[in-house]
Amino acid sequence: MIQFLLNQELRSEHALDPNLTVLNYLREHVGKSGTKEGCASGDCGACTVVVGELHRNDQGVEQIRYRSLNSCLTFVSSLHGKQLISVEDLKHQGQLHSVQQAMVECHGSQCGFCTPGFVMSLFALQKNSDAPDSQKAHEALAGNLCRCTGYRPILAAAEQACCNKPQDQFDSREAQTIAQLKAIAPTQTGELNSGDKRCLVPLTVADLADLYDAYPQARLLAGGTDLALEVTQFHRTLPVMIYVGNIEEMKRIESFDDRLEIGAATALSDCYTALHHEYPDFGDLLHRFASLQIRNQGTLGGNIGNASPIGDSPPLLIALGAQIVLCKGQTRRTLALEDYFIDYRVTARQDSEFIEKIIVPKGHSLFRAYKVSKRLDDDISAVCAAFNLKLDNGVISEARVAFGGMAATPKRARHCETVLVGATWNAAAVEKACAALAQDFTPLSDFRASKEYRLLSAQNLLRKYFIELQTPHIETRVTAYV
């Protein structure tokens, strides 16, 4: 059984289809049709809902953290121990919520289909903001598409909603909701079981290892932003899933003198502060990784584990010399991330083995990262590049150069690195290294970019890296797009 709050109503579910998304649960099982399906792939934001969960802030105070999610990519099992809020829950005692009122007064709704998703993103923004902030508003709404091109009034509504925000029913009931969430906090492995399909929800790494050993055919579910597409887009059935999002051990970020250790189930939005502090380029790229809804769900371990050749984090982590800790039963092994990827969607992971955490070395001051995509925000890379050199008196003593989108796997540019190591860091060496990239990669052409464009972009990004290191005041990193 799993338990969660539907606004303030306790829901206990056991026999639901584990392949059921939160979107379809709302629309088909509880009659809340305000949440819309626009794309069923997490691109449009029409299905945005907000999930609340217990969280201790920096001062150690327990509170509810509200986050926007794409309900079309969220399986119901991930709600275990949390609170689900949909657009119907905002109106209270016959009065519109302040974010809804702002949309009305600023004329933010046109055809209206996307409006519930915008309202929920604005609600999450308001809950996480102390004052109007244009940058945060753009970030909060980047994952919501308006087909009527009505963004200006919606941004005005965001400003109004975050300015002198009034107390709402969620604020006045916070203590009550915290008590309810504590009462339903999971204490043992949860389960959804419809007879022919099941999803297990362990609470510890040890329990996960035991379950995965017992069900090696199970699919691991973390954020689900990639896995859910098999259900919503390809109409496949996932007979057995194991949801790892309730394992606190796999959601920790620990900082040591020489490294960061990031749990594999840590949401990308939670990785931002630590990674940006150590490597600003990594943090900046996370802002372009996907929409805020996706970053609130998607995990760093999931982005590695699905072994996509266009995942944005692997090239950066490879260039930094990151490692992953793999767990199987009571056995753990540490593997260089670059050795994890074998071929297209093929990895070195053994049966019943899972990524427990990622180890990111510190202290690489010349690390830079770049992303080329058709759209600046919320788009898949055509090319993702990461460069990490060590210079001794102007001579390159170490070089790690990695790319995504250039091969069947995220991959180091070995010929390029060989040319660079031992060379003086100058334009001539860069041109030789650019030429060597043609030996490292034979990229494919697809609808994102031609093979010629990809190779030329990779070479130009290396030139860009050289120019920026010569003139560090230039702030153009991670902003390239077609």
TrEMBL record:
It is an enzyme of class 1 (oxidoreductase). InterPro entries: 2Fe-2S-bd, 2Fe-2S-bd_dom_sf, 2Fe-2S_ferredoxin-like_sf, 2Fe-2S_ferredoxin-type, 2Fe2S_fd_BS, Ald_Oxase/xanthine_DH-like, Beta-grasp_dom_sf, CO_DH_flav_C. GO terms for molecular function: 2 iron, 2 sulfur cluster binding; FAD binding; iron ion binding; xanthine dehydrogenase activity. Keywords: FAD, Flavoprotein, Iron, Metal-binding, Oxidoreductase. Its EC number is 1.17.1.4. SUPFAM superfamilies: 2Fe-2S ferredoxin-like, CO dehydrogenase flavoprotein C-terminal domain-like, CO dehydrogenase ISP C-domain like, FAD-binding/transporter-associated domain-like. Residues 1-90 form the 2Fe-2S ferredoxin-type domain. It comes from the Bacteria. It holds the Pfam family Fer2. Residues 192-365 form the FAD-binding PCMH-type domain. NCBIfam families: xanthine_xdhA. This is Xanthine dehydrogenase small subunit. It comes from Pseudomonas orientalis.
